[in-house]
Specification:
The protein has 386 residues and is α/β, with parallel strands linked by helices. It has helices at residues 4-18, 58-71, 79-83, 86-99, 110-121, 136-145, 157-165, 189-198, 223-227, 252-261, 263-266, 273-287, 290-307, 330-342, 372-385, and strands spanning 35-38, 41-45, 103-107, 127-131, 148-152, 172-177, 202-207, 231-236, 246-250, 314-315, 322-328, 345-346, 349-350, 360-365. α5 (110-121) runs parallel beside α6 (136-145) and α13 (290-307) packs parallel to α15.
Length: 386
Amino acid sequence: MSFAALTRLEIGLAALKADQLDRRRFVLDSPQGPHVTVNGRRVVSFCSNDYLGLAADPALVAAAHAALDQCGVGAGAAHLITGHHRFHHDFEAAFAGFVGKPAALLFSTGYLANLGVVTALVGRHGEVFADKLNHASLVDAAQLSGATFTRYRHGDLAQLEARLAKCAAADKLIVSDLVFSMDGDVAPVDALVDLAERHDAWLYLDDAHGFGVLNEGRGGLTPRARESDRVIYLATLGKAAGVAGAAVAAHPAVIAWLVNKARPYVYTTASPPLLAACLLESLRQIAAGAARRERLAQHVATLRAGLAGLKTGRLLDSATPIQPWVIGDNAGAVRISRALLQRGLLVPAIRTPTVPAGTARLRITLSAAHSEADVAQLVEALHAVV
């Protein structure tokens, strides 16, 4: 018997493939790192967010082994039942102190954190103001909150202020990536704080890609943002921190409110305590990681200098480990990505809807764990492919 809904899915998948938009997973058969085994083949990876090379760091692995004897594997319950382990509690305190905020809350993922924070702070009588290039989780969170959802052009603070000035809602929330994940540019934090103060709004900053890398590893918060009670800060912990989860830091009243009202926190089994033990070690490594960050910055400079003469594509202006090389059309980006893979270099093509139509790109991400030879190999291969 035919099944019309399934047929429509099959037609849709065929259309994605025809437009070079179908996505397939690589199967990883090795620890995360600059050199990985995917689909049975050893390659140099330039697509991980493991910016400091901590994902398989021996100190974090040792912390995991040690924690197993103290806490086992699973948390067994939600945080508000019996799932909140001492390791969770200690990490929250350490993270808050590290980023310069008075209190913090650990979530299982960054996606859940964004859903929890936004929906807990605003409802159908509020309004969310969001940069158009924000991560999908912030878009979904705003839509699920029931609040009026207003988007402003990327980085256009004049448009944001004009829309804030027209807002009559009691609860106003400005949400922005701090480092934009597909362009690599950094939000103007102090200018956003100014707007939040002038228009009596919350400011929520999602620092998925700056934590561990910027400001001696403490992320993209400025001194003014740290001191402001209206600023709520999120750091993703599965990228530069090398583990998993996300932490939100804010005024103690905000954290207490989230403990009671953030549904993805209240109604989710706590993350394994051993991960929190690893995160405590990760914080120590990040704090002592100046040499890693210096090596990472040198890789960024080497790559940018090496690609300066390419006539195909456009390297976006970014001082972060995210180095986007915009090709334009989907087919061109896919073709170059596949040619690099043939040379043993894993650099995926990023296409719509992740980025706007006509801006398909290679999203090159660098790690402190890469060697100078790795970066030189990538530069040489890109020139050869082009």
